[in-house]
Amino acid sequence: MCFEGITVKQVNYTFEIDKESYYPKQLEAKMSFIVNMEGEETSIHQTKNGSYSNFNEVNEIEVP
């Protein structure tokens, strides 16, 4: 993957971890970067939030 023309301004990750199981519970990611392509400059700001659940609760997978 080529990152030419991309300037990263800020990246912040925050994880909430369960104290007993050490499994992740929540995620927040904030990113800001500038993309230069063919003389045009674009600023991109992203915020992502997620939650984790159902650890080790996957049903059986049958391969045909």
Describe, in plain words, how this protein is organized in 3D:
The protein has 64 residues and is mainly beta. The chain contains no helices and three strands. Strands 1-2-3 form a three-stranded antiparallel sheet, with no helix packed on it. A hairpin with a 2-residue loop joins strand 2 and strand 3.
Give a short summary of the structure.
The protein is built from no helices and 3 strands. It has strands at 6-17, 24-37, 40-51.
- What's the main sheet like? 3 strands, antiparallel
Radius of gyration: 18 Å
What percentage of amino acids are in beta strands? over 45%
- Protein structure class: mainly beta
Total number of beta strands: 3
Mean pLDDT score: 91
Q: Write out the strand line-up for the largest beta sheet, numbering strands in chain order.
A: 1-2-3
The CA-CA distance between the termini, in Å, is: 35 Å
Helix percent reads under 10%
So what's the overall shape? Answer: elongated
Features:
3 strands, 64 residues
